[in-house]
Amino acid sequence: MRFLLETARLAVRSILRNVLRSALTVLGIVIGVAAVIGMVGIGQGTTAEVTGQVSDLGSDLLVVHPGSIMTGGQLAPLFDEADFLAIVDQINGIEAEPLVARSGSAVFGGESTATTIEGADNGAIDILGYDLAQGRVFAETEMRSGAPVCVIGSTVREELFGVGNPIGETIRVRQLACEVVGLLVSKGATLGQDDDNVVFLPVRTMQRRVAGSRDIDAILVTVNDPQRMGRVETEIEALMRERRGIGPLEEDDFDVADMAEVASMVSDITGILTGLLAALAAISLLVGGIGIMNIMLVSVTERTREIGIRLAVGATGGQVLLQFLVEAVFLSAIGGAVGILLGLGLAWLVTGLLSVTFIVDPVIIAVAFLFAAFVGVLFGYFPARRAARLDPIEALRHQ
Amino acid sequence: MSAAPVIELRGITKVFGRAAATVHALKGVDLSIASGEFVSIMGPSGSGKSTLMNITGLLDQPTAGHYLFGGAEVGDLSRDERALLRRHFLGFVFQGYNLLPRTSALENVELPLIYQGRPAAERHEAAMAALTRVGLAGRESHRPSELSGGQQQRVAIARAIVARPDVLLADEPTGNLDTARSREIMDLLQELNETEGLTIVMVTHDPKMAACSRRIVTVVDGLISDDATVGEAA
Ligand SMILES: Nc1ncnc2c1ncn2[C@@H]1O[C@H](COP(=O)(O)OP(=O)(O)OP(=O)(O)O)[C@@H](O)[C@H]1O
Ligand SMILES: [Mg+2]
């Protein structure tokens, strides 16, 4: 025990004796660990964000929209009111809400802001996870008649009204003058996109007075019994294929997305990216380990005489081995610690830029640190063994 | 001062190299050294003196023969077993001092005690005492590069005696020093031998240095050619 303490002291001294060389030696380890910690941190933050968003929407939600996720295109024909009504009529155990989206500007007095204009009834606004902060939602008659009323997000309010009260004011949305009846609670940003920069109009108002068509961009379907998610998905697919006249060998030109599926896809992608980067980082760690081995080999040669002296006064091979091994492990552990700090800094910076949660995972940190130390053991062992096996007489005679 | 000898070599041979390139450095050495003796080993260059010292000091193994240290056979011990014997019973002084560079005199002297696992306070005390013993009190914080050759050799002697070994082995301890400095080192060794009963085996080329010991063993071509008590020998 006392000897271990002496060994540790010796290792620290010999590392400090040549600070610059020690720093260059551990650079590979530092970069490797920083990359692992940084990338995993960013990946976890993003995944958590997406998962949180999806659980906001609810796992009982299906989104039906034209164009498939795979082809990504909006080239496929849009849905119309008849498609929506067919789903409502023919699929059991669901609630459905249409959605029409456009971009455009909202103007009040001298202020103007670019925003997303969504045609959505009360049900859809609720499904999308918005809560009312002030005022009211649409009245039944307003939705049925397509009245010029709107509910706005907090960003639009700030842009147009500052801190003033928007309720009862009339704003212009594209060409339509409409009365603000409600203000929504701020949802914040997801992955850099501001969810509060939005103006909601009743679907009918949107179709008649803004879009000028009866097209529907997406249909939100809430399944009453979560057990039936899969069944409902298949039923909707069959119905839409029939309605859109898709032959048995043709691909769907629409998509029914299960939110849990979307979430797992996103986290799969971040997982793959994280894995790839972690593999690169592991290679960097390996290169760092070889750097340590190289320097330790040089050190053993430089200190051959010292080793001879230690052997002569009664050090066993094991004690010499331990001395060099501890030095290598200290080096790599210091590199690991510095790398962890750097990586956390990197993750903090990037998650901040993406406006994503900054997550510190103590398990990953512990694993990275232990792995760095293990690299020290692995690559320090060979030089240390060489030192331990030196012949005392030859070592003493060395230059 | 007789009884069992502390060192007893019987028919020790040492062969270096292999096949055609073999060198027979020792060709069957018998040597017995009692506790408290001060023995000089002389002989021409390449006669096998250092080889004999290395085997006696358990730094090397004989090719054949028996080596009894304190009455026990040690000729066939493992590397680590020999290290343990060196740690507890032997002290070394080399021609080239062999101190750790960039390390204070005190820490150099403490080195054997570290491997003995002694606590820091005890190490410090013993090392200070040993440095005082060799006349270097006040120089404990100096590094080897800040000391003269004679002083460095004194540090080496302090290191060799700090763990109170049974035998001190010195291979040409004055080989790098001028006459006055050599004289001082010899006085110190003589004093250690007389006042503390330390057994000393020393290789030297200088008859004046050898004259300070009490017995002179002459090695020629790997064999002992003469073994005489100082004063009697020719
Ligand atoms: N490791 C070795 N490998 C091969 N030959 C060696 C080795 N060590 C010593 N020898 C040879 O053994 C012989 C005796 O060498 P040794 O060093 O014991 O002589 P020495 O008496 O100490 O000489 P000097 O007075 O010059 O120091 C020499 O011929 C030397 O070349
Ligand atoms: Mg020699």
Describe the structure.
The complex is a heterodimer of chains A (399) and B (234). With 399 residues, chain A is an alpha+beta fold. Chain A has 2 domains: 2-53 and 264-397, no CATH class; 77-252, no CATH class. Chain A is built from 13 helices and 14 strands. In chain A, helix 9 packs antiparallel against helix 11. Chain B has a single domain (36-60, 79-229), classed as Rossmann fold (3-Layer(aba) Sandwich). In chain B, helix 3 (105-115) packs across helix 4 (120-133), helix 3 (105-115) packs parallel to helix 5 and helix 5 (149-161) runs parallel beside helix 6 (179-196). Chain B starts with 6 loop residues before the first strand and ends in a 5-residue tail after the last strand. In chain B, 47% of the residues are buried. The chains are: A alpha+beta (399), B alpha/beta (234). The A-B interface holds A 2-3, 6, 17, 305-306, 308-319, 392-393, 396 and B 54, 59-60, 79-80, 83-84, 86-88, 92, 94, 98-102, 111-112, 114-119, 159. The structure holds adenosine-5'-triphosphate and magnesium ion. Adenosine-5'-triphosphate is lined by residues 16-17, 23, 25, 43, 45-51 of chain B. Magnesium ion binds next to helix 1 of chain B.
